[in-house]
Write a structure and sequence with these properties.
Mean pLDDT: 90
Largest sheet: none
Radius of gyration: 22 Å
Number of helices: 11
Oligomer: single chain
Strand content: under 5%
Shape: globular
Helix content: 40-55%
Structural class: mainly alpha
Distance between the termini: 61 Å
Order of helices and strands: HHHHHHHHHHH
Number of strands: 0
Length: 219
């Protein structure tokens, strides 16, 4: 390379870095950081002006639902939770209660609520059916080879902690809720994960109940 050309290349490189930095800064400015305090306000009080009911009415204080049909949300990964809230706006996860609420929330609201719940401590659950706990454990840890059902632990972790931004935290969740979601995936009532739809279609009711009960006891 001609030495006289080097200063020009260096200047061009510096200019490109400067433009990239400005663009990145602008992008950061457009996407404000989630505010857990604002999320807590909506979670605990709702917003009457938008007909948003307080989340704790169904999901309990600090995200620890005591109603088996409503999921515990405490400690859930914020990216996953915000995505689920957004999905309730679509036919992929239509729900008579959550769909109207999610449509009234802004994307920022969803991120704020998710950030608040991420900081909460989930109260542990427990497996209840001693007759199926070993079967549930086997499905969760090893899958069902003859049905080509992969181990739940492969994506959701050995203790059900999940993988941030990708796979939900499952450990300690209500048996009834987990089973209902697997059945919804199987029937197509919930259609926001092609992977889970495929897996659930290969599972029987007994297998779903066994693994859901085992998951409830994971810590």
């Amino acid at each position: 390379m001609n030495r006289a050309f080097l200063p020009f290349v260096k200047s061009l490189f510096v200019a490109m870095l400067a433009v990239s930095s400005v663009a990145y800064a602008a992008e950061e400015k457009k996407a404000p950081k989630a505010d857990p305090a604002k999320g807590e306000a909506i979670y605990t009080q709702g917003d009457a002006s938008r007909n948003v009911t307080a989340c704790l009415a169904c999901h309990g204080p600090a995200g620890n639902s005591t109603i088996a049909q409503n999921p515990k949300l405490a400690g859930q990964h914020p990216e996953y939770l915000a995505k689920q809230l957004a999905d309730f706006r679509t036919p992929q996860r239509n729900n008579p209660i959550m769909t109207p609420i999610s449509k009234a929330l802004s994307d920022e609201d969803m991120k704020n609520i998710a950030a608040y719940l991420d900081k909460q401590q989930q109260k542990p659950g427990a497996a209840r059916n001693k007759d199926t706990v070993e079967a549930g454990k086997k499905i969760y840890r090893a899958g069902i080879a003859e049905k080509n059902v992969p181990a739940c632990a492969a994506c959701h972790g050995p203790n059900g902690s999940g993988i941030p931004a990708q796979f939900a935290r499952l450990g300690g969740q209500h048996q009834e809720y987990t089973a209902a979601q697997l059945i919804s995936f199987r029937t197509g009532a919930r259609n926001n994960s092609a992977q889970m739809t495929t897996i659930a279609k290969r599972m029987s009711d007994d297998e779903i109940q066994a693994v859901s009960d085992y998951i409830a006891g994971l810590k």
